[in-house]
């Protein structure tokens, strides 16, 4: 029992050392600590604003880098997730984009973006803008089709009243 | 990443919409050159997230009918109410009023009493809409039958009485199906199942046993001995939107797209706002985490009774990144760099 114990703890020490020698190992946690500090400060400065604006519905999940990050969206589902995933994936700067709903009884949607070029956040905002434009186009096309149909013979026949 | 110029050419044309049939309560259309994900988003949003009006609160003053209060209340909730220009109504939860007011609700009163010997039916037309309401359409019961009666709410025998005040509010079908703008949304693509997204059950020959959809003749059927195209994606989507009567079918689709855009706008706003005031986007993640993801570099982790002291977690952490010590066992390095 005892030798096994020491072996285990030795292993732990070894892995710790490995981690420390890695160049970027200490950076990530430190960055995170800083951000947390900032966040607390921000909250202290502007508590009324927080009450006014709705709660933040998008967060970056821990463990990301500039080029590869996971975002968590509250109150979103496949309606936004799949379409957004597709449109982000269309961006040639994006290496990978995937989404998941971690648990069916939590209204949360996670979206993972990894880029070749540019930040993951930029890819996300570009995806949102692109999807917005797509919606505009489809809404416009539908309106044109609807007006065209209403003026056509079939449309007039279908509308006895009004 | 290189592009196939052919694909670029077809996409340059952009999406197209063709209306194949329309009436006062339905619209059939074909959506082309969009992807399955977007078409499905549109379907989902039309089905569950287009706001309408429905009775949400009932104050019962008298109910001597054979039906229980909650039974009638449920029936009242399911009566479709005209929701034209429902944007004029604010959500009750967003309204400044105490409980409900004329900005966020429509009041309908129902007072019926059977005095004759015949059994009396109470119809949706017997609901009296209060004059104070966000606009002139919102809250009227949908009445489409030739006798202009509307749906039956209850039957009363001699001496029985119903007296109640119904508060209709704005809502979406995701919360309760009574707010659904559609009775059904048909969604179909690939009528010949060329993409094999479905497996047709058959005894001898699926082609003979399965009735072809009406869209089958609009698309080229599978040729004899045609090899399966692994790269093929669906391109034409056939929608059949059937309105309940509370919104016009074309309004449902336009509202649906609008709701989708509002979702996007909300995320875009959050994303940019988070930037502006420093917190927000990168702000604290307060979601659920595995116990070992608690910052391993800050505390000593927890020592298990099994003695592997220090920060080693049950899964053997000592993680460099918070993600490193996932139960999936990538120890330390997070795999992306």
UniProtKB/TrEMBL annotation, chain A:
As for subcellular location, the record says: Nucleus
**InterPro entries found in the cross-reference section:** RBP11-like (IPR036603), RBP11-like_dimer (IPR009025), RNA_pol_Rpb11_13-16kDa_CS (IPR008193), RNAP_AC19 (IPR033898), Rpo11-like (IPR022905)
**The DNA-directed RNA polymerase RBP11-like dimerisation domain, residue ranges:** 69-138
Q: Which UniProt keywords apply?
A: DNA-directed RNA polymerase, Nucleus, Transcription
In terms of CDD domains, this protein maps to: RNAP_I_III_AC19
Give the top-rank taxon of the lineage listed in the UniProt record for this protein: Eukaryota
Q: Please indicate if the UniProt record lists Nucleus as a keyword.
A: yes
Lineage, highest ranks first: Eukaryota, Fungi, Dikarya, Ascomycota, Pezizomycotina
Q: Where is the composition biased (Basic residues)?
A: 1-10
**HAMAP family according to UniProt:** RNApol_arch_Rpo11 (MF_00261)
Any single Gene Ontology cellular-component annotation: nuclear DNA-directed RNA polymerase complex
* GO BP annotations listed: transcription by RNA polymerase III; transcription elongation by RNA polymerase I
Compositionally biased region (Acidic residues): 32-52
* Protein name, as recorded: DNA-directed RNA polymerases I and III subunit RPAC2
UniProt cross-references to Pfam families, sorted A to Z = RNA_pol_L_2
Q: Where is this region: Disordered?
A: 1-52
UniProtKB/TrEMBL annotation, chain B:
Task: State the Gene3D superfamilies in the record.
Answer: DNA-directed RNA polymerase, insert domain, RNA polymerase, RBP11-like subunit
Q: What is this protein called?
A: DNA-directed RNA polymerase II subunit RPB3
Question: Which NCBIfam families does its entry note?
Answer: PRK00783.1
Report the family membership.
Belongs to the archaeal Rpo3/eukaryotic RPB3 RNA polymerase subunit family.
MF-aspect GO terms: DNA-directed RNA polymerase activity; protein dimerization activity
Domain DNA-directed RNA polymerase RpoA/D/Rpb3-type, residue spans: 26-270
Source taxon at top rank:
Eukaryota
User: Where does this polypeptide localize?
Assistant: Nucleus
* Main location per the UniProt record: nucleus
């Amino acid at each position: 029992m005892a030798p096994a114990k020491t072996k285990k703890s030795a292993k732990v020490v070894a892995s710790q050392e490995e981690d420390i020698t890695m160049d970027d190992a200490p950076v990530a946690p430190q960055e995170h600590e800083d951000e947390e500090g900032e966040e607390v400060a921000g909250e202290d400065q502007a508590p009324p604003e927080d009450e006014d604006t709705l709660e933040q519905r998008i967060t970056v999940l821990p463990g990301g880098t500039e080029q590869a990050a996971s975002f968590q969206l509250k109150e979103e589902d496949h309606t936004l997730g799949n379409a957004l995933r597709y449109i982000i994936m269309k961006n040639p700067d994006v290496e990978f984009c995937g989404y998941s709903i971690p648990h069916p009884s939590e209204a949360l949607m996670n979206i993972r973006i990894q880029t070749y070029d540019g930040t993951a956040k930029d890819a996300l905002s570009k995806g949102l803008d692109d999807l917005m434009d797509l919606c505009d186009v489809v809404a416009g096309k539908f309106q044109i089709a609807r007006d065209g149909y209403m003026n056509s013979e079939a449309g007039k026949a279908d509308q006895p009243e009004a | 990443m290189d592009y196939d110029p052919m694909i670029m050419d077809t996409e340059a044309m952009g999406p197209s919409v063709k209306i194949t049939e329309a009436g006062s309560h339905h619209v059939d259309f074909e959506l082309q050159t969009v992807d399955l994900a977007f078409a499905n988003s549109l379907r989902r949003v039309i089905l569950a997230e287009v706001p309408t009006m429905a009775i949400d609160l009932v104050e019962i003053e008298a109910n001597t009918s054979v039906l229980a209060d909650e039974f009638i209340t449920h029936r009242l909730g399911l009566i479709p109410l005209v929701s034209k220009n429902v944007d004029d109504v604010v959500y009750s939860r967003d309204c400044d009023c105490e409980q409900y007011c004329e900005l966020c609700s429509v009041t309908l009163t129902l007072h019926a009493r059977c005095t004759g010997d015949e059994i009396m039916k109470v119809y949706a037309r017997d609901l009296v809409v209060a004059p104070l309401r966000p606009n002139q359409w919102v809250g009227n019961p949908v009445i489409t039958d030739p006798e202009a009666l509307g749906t039956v709410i209850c039957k009363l025998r001699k001496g029985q009485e119903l007296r109640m005040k119904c508060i209709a509010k704005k809502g979406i079908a995701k919360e309760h199906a009574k707010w659904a703008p559609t009775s059904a949304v048909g969604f179909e693509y690939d009528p010949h199942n060329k993409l094999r997204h479905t497996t047709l059950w058959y005894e001898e020959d699926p082609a003979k046993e399965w009735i072809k959809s009406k869209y089958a003749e609009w698309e080229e059927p599978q040729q004899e001995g045609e090899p399966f195209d692994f790269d093929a994606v669906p391109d034409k989507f056939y929608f059949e939107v059937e309105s309940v009567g509370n919104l016009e079918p074309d309004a449902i689709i336009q509202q649906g797209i609008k709701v989708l855009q509002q979702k996007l706008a909300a995320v875009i706003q959050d994303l940019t706002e988070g930037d502006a005031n420093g917190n927000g986007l990168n702000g604290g993640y307060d979601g659920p985490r595995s116990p070992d993801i608690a910052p391993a570099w800050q505390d000593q982790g927890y020592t298990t009774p099994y003695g592997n002291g220090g920060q080693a977690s049950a899964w053997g952490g000592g993680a460099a990144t918070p993600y490193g010590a996932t139960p999936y066992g990538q120890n330390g390095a997070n795999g992306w760099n």
